[in-house]
Give the backbone structure.
Amino acid sequence: MSESKSALDFSLVLASTVHDIKNSLSMLLNGLDEMSTQWQPQEEACGAQLSRLRYEGRRINDQLIQLLVLYRIGEQHYSPNMQEYAVSECLEECVLEHQDWLALKGIALSVDCDESLHWCFDRELVMGVVATVINNAYKHARDSVCVSARRDGDGLAISVVDNGAGYPTPMLHGDDLQAPGIDLKSGGTGLGLHFAAAAAALHRSRHGVGRITTDNLGLDGGGRFTLYLP
Amino acid sequence: MKLWSLVGQRCLIVDDFPEMRSMLRNLLTSFSAQDLQQARNGEEAMRALAQQHYDIIFCDYNLGSGRDGQQILEEAKQRGLLALTSIFIMVTAENTSAMVMGAIEYQPDDYLAKPFTKAVLQARLTKLMEKKAALADVYRAVEKQDVERLEQLGAEQAASHGKHRHEVWRLQTELLLSVGSLDAAEDLCATVLADREVPWALLATARARYQRGDYGKAQHVLRRLIEVNPTHMAAYDWLAKVQDRLGESAAAQSTLAKAVARSPKSVLRQRSLAEIAARNGDAEVAERAYRQVIKVGEHSVWRRPADYTGLVQVLVDKNETAEALKVVGEIGRAFRDDAQAALQTLIAEADVHLAGGAERPARELVAQAVTMFEAEPALLAVEVGMSLAHCCAAVGLVDAADEVLKHIVRNHHEDETLLAEVRGVYEAAGMQRRGGESIKAVQGEVAEINNQGVRLAQQGDVEQAARLFMQALEKMPNNAAVNLNAAQILMLSMSEHGATRATLEQTRRYLDAARDSPAHCEKQRKLSAMWRQLAAAAK
């Protein structure tokens, strides 16, 4: 009894803290957005710095989401909110959110998705995964990142490709990746993949369970991340 | 890029964090929004929503103390303060799954996760405004309950393969179910499901079968829905209802327990669990669920004194008299200036004393309750009336018990299930014979009113007949047959002399009052269809 009570209390503390952090992040990121619309043309160095700050802000947000979702999954409290969405609309929104600050670093972000493609998924989870991967690509891409979605057998495949140097070997995962262990020595990226795999696995239907793969079949040998949803 | 702005849109921002409010305000102002109001908490939000219509509402889910965003949405919808054309956006800090566990009709138009950028906000608003504009005719038809028009619009969507066709069909199905056109609803769902297993269409199919009384088939569909979509909470609610109807009340309780574990904030679901656990004699689960209902329902439009009295009953059964009295004391604090709650408090307290063998204080409380009932009989809901009659009999106020039960019979003179319960109360009080006589007398009294009214109408004295039924309804406001007769007479009069808005509304109220009576559902449907024609012709 007392055990579950303290877990509940922590959950409440967490919810209210996250609420506060999200408010702060909102102020921070919107402030940066406003600054970049005002200053962008004049100074290149300033733009690069804003882009960098924007990246760090997004990283805090992505990791916060990851931490929280993984915590909720661990506590068996996470129930995915499955709804039907136009996939292209979700991806385009993702691009809207990221393209400006990627552009500040000279990276073009594009979408390739059939408008008629609809799918049932947890939007926050899936967009959280895509955002994380885009954020990661920001660091590695030379000048191009592309988000795409297509039917894959009975499922949906969402890919993020870039034209950077590709994933290092330890981060390459074939078809069997559902929930990799976290290698804390490799830094935050391990958590990102772990989160992506866990988010994928929360999607299940009679056609199977969601999963992710990583390979270096992106643009010019760059990284390719794929999320498969049943 | 095409010209887009919020000019002419009245917006409401609900957030407890001043910086967030001003940030949102700046963003909206940059889209040329001029008419902007703000609210800091649930109370201010409800006041604003009650005062005027808003086109766009941004509401943070987490508002500190008081109502949360979901409770604001539910209350606004329940009180009719939110038009179908309004856009309600829930702004959230984290995963929305805890919020979307209610019924689909209490979901916002969209969720917006913080932090969001100006570009994303604009994209979402553009999309939502386009959708609301594209569906304007559909919403109008829904609000007018114009089935024919909505069927026409649904067919148009099918032909043009419109972007929002599923939304139109879903609304169409809802309306068909609510007016009892079960065949049409099922046919539409079957067409949709032939293409893809969409959750709403599965659920609607199950509901149609439930309404038909075909519980086996309803259960089959619901199991399928849960298999495809294990987080579809409404499916669990309906499955529990179906299981209950099939006499599997233990299974129903376990279905609800599973759903409640996933959605602890849903007042209605917790209440269903509490009630069924109490019926199953599972005092532990019932007590926990009732306490949870009271806790999460504190700021909810769904809270009821009956949750407290239900808890009191459970505690009495557990012989926890002191705790039961404590809960009784909380009713008055939770429902100030609420006569109905005051009446229920008296009865609940009397119940506790009776269970503890303290007849004298019980007698005093019962006498007070009877005085309240006599002054305003309409205060007495059926369940409360049964308890009151039971208490009256227990303290020897047999005449009062008889009056209370007669009042129940007068309002439900053809409901056999309820009449059996009433007979049970008479029997338990050793008043079997008197009960039989009273029930017969009241049934005769109601039948005489109905006959007299019909006679008057047949003689062409519609005015006199209408007056008779309306007068009768003052004494028996919940009697389905009399309500339907009153509605029929008013519509007869309107078809002769033309409809007025006030009379249409009055008729609607009579029809609504008869909606839950199983013995009258066919007539209720027929008259409702007639009402829709009159209402459509009047506009």
Notes: Strands of chain A lie at 82-86, 108-113, 118-122, 144-152, 155-162, 204-205, 208-209, 211-215, 224-229. The interface with chain B takes residues 15-16, 18-19, 21-23, 25-30, 33, 57, 61, 65, 68-69, 72, 78-82, 84, 89, 92-93, 96-97, 100, 120, 122-124, 205-206 of chain A (CB under 8 Å).
